[in-house]
Each structure stands twice: as C-alpha cells, then as structure tokens.
Specification:
heterodimer; A: 347 residues; mainly alpha; ABC transporter involved in vitamin B12 uptake, BtuC; 2 domains; B: 503 residues; alpha/beta; Rossmann fold; 6-stranded mixed β-sheet; 17 helices; 21 strands
Chain lengths: 347, 503
C-alpha cells in the first residue's frame, strides 16, 4: 500500500510539473509574462483571508461531487451524468425546503438531504439498471440522461416554481440558512465559505472509510478491478453495482446544500456551472481517493478563482486549458511511472 | 551447430535473481525442453531470448552470431518465434488476417490475400495443420487457435520456435496431434524449445532437457532413445527425491446425494450445449470429469454456481453454499490488485469493517497454513507465482467449509510441489465427507484423485467409470510421475471417448 502511495505521489507531482511547464510555454507563445501571471494568481488566492475563503468555498462542491463520482469510478462505472444527477437532487432540495420552511432548521436540513440523495440516486440507478440488465454502456446513458434531466428541470421551473421572469425558485428565509464560517473565524471575512465545507470534509472521510475499510468497499473495488472474478468469487455483482451507483449519484445531490442553504437560498438553473464534469477531473487527479479529492478539488478551486483575477491579462478560459492538460498528463504520465516501477521492482 | 547459446546470462529484479549465470546450448534441429518449477526462472530466460527482457549481463548467440535484443521485434528479425501460454489473437479476425497482422503482404494499397492464402495453404499442407484460413478465431477451439499461433511463426519463417506450456490446455488426443506437428518441424530442420511441467511428455518428445531451479541451471540430460528417467528429472526440478508420497483415502460413505442433475438440456445462442446430462455427486467422493474443453464443462459449473437458470431438466442441490476454484485464475479466480488478506476478506470477511493489521494477520495465517511462498506479506496477489496464487484461491474457497466443492483445472500451470500440495488438500476435503467435482484435462490427475470418473462428450456423460474399475485400470493414486502412464489401456479408451469414438 505504501509503495503504491509513493508511486501515486510521484506520478501526480510529475503531472503537475509537466502542466506547469506546458502552461509556461503556452503563455510565452502568446507573448505574456508567465511570472507576472503566476504571481497575480498567487497573491489573489493566498494573500487575503477572503481569497482563501473564496477558494475553499469553490472547492466545496467539487469535493462533494468528486467523492460521489469516486465511488462510481471504483466500481469501474464511468459516470458522466453527475451534472444531471446533482441538478435533479438540488432542485428537489430547494422545492421541498420551501414547502417545509416552518419546521425546525435541523429537521428541514435532514429531510432535504434524504430527499435530494434519493432523487439523485434514482437518476443514477436508471443507467446502472440498464447496464446490469442489458449491458448498455453507462457512458452513453448517463450523458444522455443529463440532457433529459436538465430539460425536465427547466420545464418544471418555468411552468411551476420560478419567480416570475427569472430562472430561479423563491428564496428561503434567512433563519433557514447554514452559518458562514466567517461568523466564527473572522479571518474569512466577506467570503461565502459556509458550514457545507465541513459537510464536504465529513463526506470525504466517510467515503474514504467506506471505500477502503469496509467489506462493501472492498467488494466495490473488486468489481472495478475484475468483474468476472468477482462473480466467480461469489459476489452479487449486479446488486453491488446498483448500490454503488445509487450511493455515488446520491452524494452528488449534496452539492445543492452548499448552494441553496449555504450561499443563495434558492435553486437557479445553471447554478452548477459544469461542476459535474469538472469533478470527473478532480476525482481522476486524486486517483479516486476521497481524501486526495480534497486536495485536487483545492487545486481546481485555485485555478478557478485565480482565473478570475487574471482575466484582464489573459482570457480566464486559459484555466480550462490548464485543467485539460492536467488530465491528459495524469493519464499519460501515470502509465509511464507505473511501468517504470514495475520494470524495476517487480519479481 | 548450436541454434541458441546462452553464456552466463544474469537477470535480477530488485534483489531477486531470476537468472544467475545460466549457460547452455540448444542444438539446431532438435527439441529442447526447459523445465523447472514456477518461479525457477524459465519464463524469464525465454523472455530474454525473445527480447522481452534485457539481461543484466551475459551474452546470447543465435546461430553463432552474438545478438543483443531490445524488443521482440529484434528477435523476430532473427527468426525466433514464440507461442505464449495465453494466445495473442484477435477474435474477430480470420485465421489468415491474424497470421499476416504486422507482416501484411500488399499489392498496391490492398492486401494481397491471394498470395497470402496460397502461402498459408502450402504451409498447412506441409505441416498437416488441418485448419481453414477463412474461419474466424472466435469460432475455433483452443487447440485450433494454437495452430493459428504456430502458423503465424511459420509464415514469418521462424527457425527457432519457443512454446510456453503448449499442452496445458490440450486433451490427450490433441497432445498427440501436437507432437506430430513438432516431429514434422524437427524433420524440417527447425529448432523447438518447449517449456512444460509434464514429464512424461518430456520423455516422449525431447532430445535434451535443461532444468532450472531458483534461477540456476541445475541439471542437463540427453534423451537417448527415450531413456530418460522421470524420477531423476522430478527430483532435479524440486530439489528433493521424495515425490511419490500419496495420501490415503478414507472409506467412502456414499449415501448422501448432494447434487443431482437429470436429463439437463441447455442452449446458448441457439447452440445446444448440454444434451440430456445426467450427473450425481455424493458426499465424501471426488467425481472426476474429463473431456475436451467446450463440451459443457463451463455450463455445468454455471448451473451449479447459479449463474445459469435457463435449462430444462431436473436439478437438485442439497448444499447451500458452494466453493468454486475456477479454471482461469487470473481472469476468474482472484483480484490481482489485492493482497492475500484482501482476497480472503472479500469473500469470507465476517465483519463489516476491517483494519490494515487484521488484513495482515489474515495474510500471515493463510501463508502459514497453505504453505504460500512469498517474500512480502503485503504484496499483491498478481505478483505471486501461479502455484502460490492457486494456493491462495484454494485457501479462500476451503476456509468457509462448504459441503460442495468444484475444482476446475486446479493445477493448470502449477509446479510439482504446489500440485502435490493441492492434491493433498483435495483428498483431505474428501476425507472430511465433502462432495467434490473435479474437472481437469490432465488424465493423470483425474485418475489419481477420482473415486468415480465421468467422460463428457457433446454435453453428455458418455461413460462413468466406477472406483473399482479405476483402481484396476490406473496406477497408484496421486503418482503423477509414473513412467508408463500413457500406455495404460484405460487411458486409450477414455481418450477415444473424449472425441466421440465409442467402439
């Protein structure tokens, strides 16, 4: 295990180094000063409590969604449908929260978490069921379900729930919101960082224990490594695939807790801004390790927030290029490093 | 003239010496067997010869010319060819397409299939390969696929042919056919290198053997007029001379029927696979099932394991849980990425949570009780040798103490020591009163262990041989090193039944 961890660490560091080099070259190519740009990003993100708070705030949904995806990925299910799944759950969270505003806040939160989890989970269960029964690739079904879910939400939102001439629901009462961390830690003053960040860390720890320390986690990963063998070993592979897809997709709904209870107080069409896709990269970068996902989510949050700060100098879309390069280099360098160690070390 | 000459070849992986100062020659126009246990270094040596590994020191000469290979490409250019244990074929391509892949003969921009087919036709005829170049690989049996691999080497005009355990997957009749092809090669001036575990085959076909043990060359012997002594070979391989120890079987109490299959019929994709199969498994017995692969063995397993429910006929199973040791350990038997402990916990874990130290303790216990040889308790199962992997799989399946055990090719590709250990475990379970179904293509193994033996052909048991007949017809139980095994009349009879000859 520790050897594996070492190999992972080396390959991730090498990939990040490669990305840095490529980006430097790219900036030079378009005649910008890389040092200037890197230092702006650095000072914007790290120089103030506000910057750090905003970065952690942006990392929150990525951690949550990344952990959900990691569970799917461990079962070798390439879930590309997180964007749809998390929106379905978040939408339902907002709708239900508005209906039960008079209940005590902890109860509202609990009901919303359960309902959101189930709704997102069910939308994960559909492609998993089709895969298990008819062997249809989940890549296709999940990506198609994204369109269906988002269109359905738009329909319900516009026709029934939206505030007139907007694309959002009504707002929750102020006393039904999660606390901001700046209330306790003045350092983060002004940032939107809220209690959801703590929730995200808890989810990450629970996911880690679930995947690596429980019997069920061992079974999920076994299926991911070798489904045929798992079947012959006597595992109920179909049931495990369904449960892990339900759980993974369910977790993505909690992204809505951050946005609705921690930030805006309502659901808004397009709020997720492709978190469901970015989280794929976040999970990949961390090799699907939920604790690692905290760090890779932070990296992507730095890129995201830092991107805003350099918008006058270079288009902030350059950060998307950075994300793409990270994924490509992770995938290619990982193979090289693993091969190198196998050739050197294995018997 | 020497076709291959190894001089002081050394190869280390980390601290482990896979090959240590190996020097020997392989004569042109001969059949040379390389023997040794799993992990003795024979695969490493062959991979060096085929350019897949680069030796740390030492030199190799091919036809008196010193060579340095950095990839199989270089070896192929020097007319070396290798048939791997796991075939490298593309299922959706035809025989001809597979053979020419990488060596396509073109006419303009098109592949010149006309002359390809002509060349292939000549080769097939010359070496009696009896195979249709237009058929798809997915429709060929294992032995036919092997012929395609051979054809590939011939098409590339290889002069030195390396075979890695070529007979492990073949039935006795197919083995005889394979040996005819080998004889034909020798007659045509080719050099053949065989890696194998089956000593009576070595005696039958080889001109010379080289035996490796723990990375060193320990024994070499010429086989003049098939005079080799199998006992000498096996003690050189294992390093000890006491091999013929056999386990006594306790008296059978054949009263409880555990599994009963009556007139089972099964179709898959409109092909009839089981055609009225009758099979009864009793407690306290080992029921051996022999037959050419693809005659319904896998489907019988699937029904008993509960993977297949769309059959007709009567099926009763008194055992709640079954233990299954599948035929293909890498693909079906284990999670290569998991440690020993993790593989055991996966199936037998009684708690929902597990700590690293508990897993380590499970590993240690299995290593001790099942004689698994491993340098690091926490290494992945995939990095162990085949015999040790198989011991772990058997440990996992025996630990729960289920009433019904299925062993499918339990010692395929496993060395002699591990084979003996696995056989003793199987007999031990039988003596505890367990019901055991043993599927194998190794007649020696079946004969040595089975209480009853069924011959499977075309989805049906065509003959059941009872224990008395087995005792009279075969040699001592478990004596896998017997010199005369191939000459027993019952073997011949079974061999014929397996391919559908009933007279």
């Amino acid at each position: 295990m520790s050897r594996k961890a070492k190999i992972n660490l080396i390959s991730i560091s090498l990939s990040l180094a490669a990305t840095l080099i490529i980006i430097t070259l790219l900036l030079l190519l378009i005649n910008k000063n890389p040092i200037e740009i890197f230092s702006i990003i650095f000072s914007e993100v790290f120089a103030s409590g506000y910057g750090i708070g905003q970065t952690l705030f942006k990392a929150t949904p990525l951690i949550i969604c990344g952990c959900g995806l990691a569970i799917c990925f461990h079962a070798s299910l390439f879930n590309i449908g997180a964007e749809g799944q998390l929106n379905a759950g978040s939408f339902v969270i907002a709708i239900i929260a508005l209906q039960i505003q008079d209940l005590p806040f902890p109860l509202i939160l609990l009901i919303c978490i359960v309902c959101g989890f189930v709704i997102s989970g069910v939308f994960g269960l559909i492609p998993a069921y089709i895969k298990v029964k008819k062997d249809v690739s989940e890549v296709i079904t999940t990506i198609m379900l994204n369109f269906i879910i988002l269109a359905l939400i738009n329909y319900f939102l516009v026709d029934f729930f939206a505030v007139k001439s907007t694309m959002r629901t009504q707002e929750l009462n102020d006393n039904n919101m999660l606390f901001k961390l700046s209330e306790f830690i003045p350092f983060f003053k002004g940032s939107s960082l809220n209690a959801s960040f703590i929730l995200a860390i808890i989810i990450s720890v629970i996911s880690y224990v679930f995947i690596y320390k429980t019997k069920f986690g061992y079974r999920i990963r076994a299926i991911g490594f070798n489904e045929t063998a798992s079947k012959y070993i006597g595992l109920k592979t179909n049931k495990i695939i369904l449960i892990s897809f339900f759980t993974g997709a369910g977790i993505t709904s909690l992204v809505g807790i951050n946005f609705i209870f921690g930030y805006k107080g309502f659901y808004e069409a397009g709020f997720s801004n492709n978190i469901g896709f970015t989280a794929i990269a976040v999970a990949l970068l961390a090799k699907n390790n939920p604790l690692g996902i905290i760090f890779s989510a932070l990296l992507f949050a730095i890129l995201d927030y830092g991107g805003l700060s350099i918008n006058q100098l270079v288009p902030k879309e350059i950060m998307l290029v950075v994300q793409g390069i990270i994924i490509l280099s992770i995938l290619s360098i990982d193979k090289l490093v693993t091969q190198y160690f196998e050739r050197r070390g294995a018997v | 003239m020497l076709a291959v000459e190894f001089s002081n070849v050394c190869k280390k992986f980390g601290n482990f010496s896979a090959n240590e100062n190996i020097s020997f020659g392989i004569k042109k126009n001969s059949v040379h067997c390389v023997l040794g246990e799993n992990g003795a270094g024979k695969s490493t040596l062959m991979k060096i010869l085929f350019g897949m590994h680069i030796p740390d020191s030492g030199s190799i000469k091919i036809f008196d010319e010193e060579v340095k290979f950095s990839s199989p490409h270089d070896a192929i250019a020097k007319k070396i060819g290798m048939v791997h244990q796991h075939f490298m074929l593309i299922d959706d391509f035809t025989v001809a397409e597979n053979v020419i892949l990488g060596n396509e003969l073109t006419k303009g921009i098109e592949i010149d299939f006309k002359s390809v087919n002509k060349t292939l036709g000549e080769l097939i005829k010359k070496y009696n390969l009896n195979i249709d170049p237009h058929r798809k690989i997915s429709r060929l049996s294992i032995s036919e696929q092997q012929k395609v691999e051979i054809l590939k080497l011939l098409y590339r005009e290889s002069e030195i042919l390396i075979f890695d355990e070529p007979t492990a997957v073949l039935s006795p009749v197919e083995v005889a056919e394979f040996f005819n092809v080998i004889e034909e090669f020798r007659a045509n001036g080719k050099t053949i290198i065989l890696i194998t575990h089956k000593l009576n085959e070595v005696k039958q076909i080889s001109d010379k053997v080289s035996i490796l043990r723990r990375g060193k060359l320990v024994h070499e012997e010429e086989n003049v007029n098939n005079s080799m002594d199998i006992r000498t070979l096996s003690s050189a391989i294992t390093g000890n001379a006491t091999l013929s120890e056999t386990m006594e079987k306790a008296g059978v109490q054949e009263n409880n029927v555990i599994v009963e299959m009556t007139d089972i019929k099964l179709k898959r994709e409109n092909v009839k696979i089981l055609n009225g199969l009758n099979l009864t498994l009793m407690s306290g017995e080992i029921y051996g099932l022999c037959g050419v692969e693809g005659n319904g063995q896998n489907e019988i397993i699937d029904i008993i394991a509960g993977f297949e429910n769309n059959y007709e006929g009567g099926y009763k199973n008194e055992s709640e849980n079954i233990s299954l040791v599948p035929d293909d350990r890498i693909r079906k038997g284990m999670i290569s990425e998991y440690t020993i402990g993790e593989n055991i916990f996966l199936k037998n874990g009684k708690t929902n949570f597990i700590s690293q130290s508990t897993l380590e303790n499970i590993s240690k216990e299995i290593i001790k009780n099942y004689d698994v040889r491993v340098s690091d308790t926490n290494s992945n199962l995939g990095s162990l040798s085949g015999g040790n992997q198989q011991k772990v799989i058997i440990a996992r399946e025996l630990e729960p103490g289920n009433e019904l055990l299925i062993f499918s090719h339990p010692t395929r590709g496993v060395d002699i020591n591990a084979t003996l250990f696995i056989h003793s475990k199987i007999i031990e379970e039988r003596n505890k009163g367990k019901s055991i179904l043993l599927i194998s293509s190794d007649l020696d193994e079946l004969a040595g262990l089975s209480d009853r033996l069924g011959v499977l052909y075309n989805g049906k048991i065509v003959k059941t041989i009872d224990s008395q007949e087995l005792k009279n017809g075969f040699l001592k139980a478990g004596d896998i090193t017997s010199n005369d095994a191939l000459n027993v009349p019952l073997y011949e009879q079974i061999g014929k039944l397996m391919i559908g000859i009933t007279n």
